[in-house]
């Protein structure tokens, strides 16, 4: 996972007063799964090779920006 995206996620967690464990509960995953994904360890944090190739071929980059929702559980599902 891109360091900038990881930084933005950690910042957003602080803004919402959430821990990584809170995030894990919100998306129905274990805290270990979330930590692996955010730290870029095996099993998480990487764009699948097919998507990476598509994005590269089209000269596109993934970006992250805050949504319009307010607080935790804003009814937007939480799963990506």
Binned strand content: under 5%
How confident overall, as mean pLDDT?
79
Characterize the largest beta sheet: strand count, sense, and whether it forms a barrel: none
Quick one: how many beta strands? 0
Distance separating the two termini: 15 Å
As a whole number of angstroms, the C-alpha radius of gyration is: 14 Å
Q: Which structural category fits the helices and strands?
A: mainly alpha
Helix content: 40-55%
Oligomer category: single chain
Verbal overview:
The protein is mostly helical and 80 residues long. It is 50% helix and 0% strand. It has helices spanning 3-16, 20-27, 31-39, 49-57. Helix 2 (20-27) packs across helix 3. The longest helix is centred in the first third of the chain and has 14 residues, at 3-16. It is globular. The two termini are 15 Å apart. Mean pLDDT is 79; it is low at 74-80.
Highlighted features:
80 residues, mainly alpha, 4 helices, globular, disordered C terminus
Describe the structure in brief:
The protein has 80 residues and is mainly α.
Write the layout of secondary structure elements.
Elements: H1 3-16, H2 20-27, H3 31-39, H4 49-57
Helix pairs in contact: 2-3
């Amino acid at each position: 996972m891109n360091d900038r995206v990881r930084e933005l996620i950690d910042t957003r967690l602080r803004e919402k007063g959430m821990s990584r464990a809170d995030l894990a509960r919100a998306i129905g995953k274990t805290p270990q799964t979330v930590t692996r994904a955010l730290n870029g360890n095996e099993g998480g944090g990487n764009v699948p090779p097919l998507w990476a190739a598509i994005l590269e071929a089209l000269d596109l980059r993934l970006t992250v920006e805050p949504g319009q929702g307010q607080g935790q559980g804003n009814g937007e599902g939480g799963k990506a």
